[in-house]
Amino acid sequence: MMTSKITPGQWISPESGKTLSHGDVLKMAAEAGTVLLGEQHDQAAQHRWQLHVLAGLRALRDDLAVGYEMFPARLDPVLKRWTDGDYASEAAFLDDAEWGTVWGFPSGLYMPLFRFCRQFRIPMHGLNCRRPLVTEVGKLGWDAIPEAERDGVTPALAATSAYRQYLFDITGGGSPTRKSQGPDDPAFDRFVRAQQVWDRSFACRIANLRNTPTAPLVIGIIGRGHLEFGHGTPAQLADLDTGPVVVLLPHVDSHPPAKGIADAVFCIDAHEDG
């Protein structure tokens, strides 16, 4: 059914504008190879939505793995010890996971997701790279980085004009005080290259999980700016040929979602606490 009114609790297809059933969305996602769940990092309601989707997918698939933008891949041994139940306290886990260093948001926003993975023994993986790589590629470009220092990340597929425009718009557009005055301005290249290191890192880690004999359904917990409109990580995953990808986003706007922003969006009450 086509909807012109945004009602919390609805799934909507941005392409058609029609409402979708919860079961149909979960079935579509469960049949994919990768499901990317977007977020605004500081919004508790959006993390609760991610947890609900994760729980729904766990009911349909036993073979899940969850990748987190929040952790660099080097911390995978710590994440395995957590899901294996080896930590006596959450504080000890967060300390070993260097939470206060690798991520700047309260751990309480993410602990329900981490607890769910531990309870069901769902493998957790870091999708991020070493932070200096982002700065180095942004400043110097990929060709200046020796392969041994690329942290397992391959050079990104070049940004399209549409992606450059998207990034320019979400970072302030043509403000008079801005150094770069347009998406194709060479002054904007450094930011685009840096953003694409993250896009590609997330995609490479997911590809590594998918390219195994018993490839799991990989759930990516990633900021929405890396996912919208098929840019960012979805484009890099397509370049790496990882199989079908479904992008699901929370939607808090009172207006219908833009066409192409995701495969489906879930409407969250903008006034919901957190």
Account of the protein in words:
The chain has helices at residues 22-30, 44-60, 76-83, 90-96, 99-102, 111-119, 131-140, 161-170, 189-210, 232-240; strands at residues 11-12, 19-20, 34-39, 64-72, 124-128, 217-223, 245-251, 264-267. Strand 1 and strand 2 form a beta hairpin. 38% of the residues lie in helices and 15% in strands. Helix 1 (22-30) packs across helix 2, helix 7 crosses helix 9 (189-210) and helix 9 (189-210) packs across helix 10. It is an alpha/beta fold and 274 residues long. The chain has a single domain, classed as Rossmann fold (3-Layer(aba) Sandwich), CATH 3.40.50. The mean pLDDT is 95. Strands 2-1-8-7-3-6-4-5 form an 8-stranded mixed beta sheet, sandwiched between helices. It starts with 10 loop residues before the first strand and ends in a 7-residue tail after the last strand. The radius of gyration is 19 Å and the shape is globular.
Uncertain stretches? none
CATH topology: Rossmann fold
SS summary, helix count: 10
Helical fraction: 25-40%
Q: What number of domains?
A: 1
Radius of gyration: 19 Å
Oligomer: single chain
Q: Can I get a quick summary?
A:
By secondary structure, this protein is of the alpha/beta class.
Layout: helices, strands, pairs:
Layout: E1 11-12, E2 19-20, H1 22-30, E3 34-39, H2 44-60, E4 64-72, H3 76-83, H4 90-96, H5 99-102, H6 111-119, E5 124-128, H7 131-140, H8 161-170, H9 189-210, E6 217-223, H10 232-240, E7 245-251, E8 264-267
Parallel strand pairs: 3-6, 3-7, 4-5, 4-6, 7-8
Antiparallel strand pairs: 1-2, 1-8
